[in-house]
Amino acid sequence: MKILALDTSNQPLTVAVLVDGKMQASETLTTHKKHAEFLLPVIEDLVQKSGLKPVDIDRVVVAVGPGSYTGIRMATTFAKSFASTLDKELVAVSSLLALALNVRDEEVLINPIFDGRNQNMFTGLYQWQNGQLKTVVDDQHTNVDDWLKQLANIELPIVMVGETDNFVGPYKDALGSQIQVSQGLQNIPNAALLAEYGQQLEPIKNVDGLEPRYLRLTKAEADWQAAHPNERGGNYVEKV
Q1: What is the CA radius of gyration of the chain?
Q2: In what order do the strands lie in the sheet with 89-93?
Q3: Which terminus of the chain has a lower count of CB atoms within 10 Å, N or C?
Q4: What is the rounded distance in angstroms from the CA atom of residue 104 to the CA atom of residue 238?
Q5: Minimum mean pLDDT among 101-110, 148-157, 231-240: which range?
Q6: The dihedral of CA 43, 44, 47, 52: what is its sign?
Q7: Is the Cα dihedral 109, 27, 121, 203 positive or negative?
Q8: Which residues pair with 62 in a beta bridge?
């Protein structure tokens, strides 16, 4: 199986091509968020370097959020367009799970983190079980204090991975030596690992129905709800 995997959820842009379980080409950029400028050229370059054409790809694996609104919209839109136009399989993976793939240890719980600012975070809890990365606590957008309350009764070691700098202090205060903090490259998503994991998942049946997983309201939705406090759940797009 020939797989193209991509993740543009946050600052890093990472793309990889996997053929029959072997990594052919990959690239990760971490110096900017100009994903609109670099995503398509990187994909084209890696597919070509793998000796393939776009039509040769069998499956696209994409990280669909949470994360940067623009980043996950871009990756999701590309993946849907590619899969639909060329009639290819499409697999959607949580961006937090994609980050958690960097930690391969069945004896710990893996806590991927994206910094949501002002002590808020996108986070979840995962564990490897029989070669599968299982969800222990669902992905969510929450405050660090509320999240630590959810971790209070957990006894296994917890590995923080990702954008951890602003949260290590509160974690250590609450959980002490139970906490381990990933270092270096473990904190950067790896599209090669995403491709490898995505090859064993079932493709989605409704490609056109795939949507980004924001896990919180967009600014437009939040503004609409503020202006229409009695119309929760309505359509925030004004109709003329």
Answers
A1: 19
A2: 22-29, 13-19, 2-7, 59-63, 89-93
A3: C
A4: 47
A5: 231-240
A6: positive
A7: negative
A8: 6, 92
Cβ-Cβ contacts under 8 Å for 66 (sequence gap 6 or more): 9, 72, 94, 95, 96, 114, 122, 139, 141, 213, 214, 215, 216
Provide the 3-class DSSP secondary structure of residue 73.
helix
190 within 8 A of 14, measured Cβ to Cβ: yes
Query: What are the E-state strand segments in the chain?
Result: 2-7, 13-19, 22-29, 59-63, 89-93, 109-117, 120-129, 132-143, 158-162, 179-181
**Tokens, residue 157:** 């070691």
Please, are residues 93 and 57 in contact by the beta-carbon 8 Å criterion?
Answer: no
CA proximity to 104, closest of 178, 197, 203? 197
- The full length of the chain comes to 240
pLDDT in the model for residue 201? 97
pTM for this one? 0.91
| Token reading at 29 | 């950029």
**HEC readout, 177-232:** HHEEECCHHHHCCCHHHHHHHHCCCCCCCCHHHCCCCCCCCCHHHHHHHHHCCCCC
Q: Residues 131, 197: contact at Cβ < 8 Å?
A: no
Residue 116 pLDDT > 70: yes
Give 92's Cβ-side CA count (13 Å radius): 22
CA triple 43-47-191, angle to 5 deg: 60
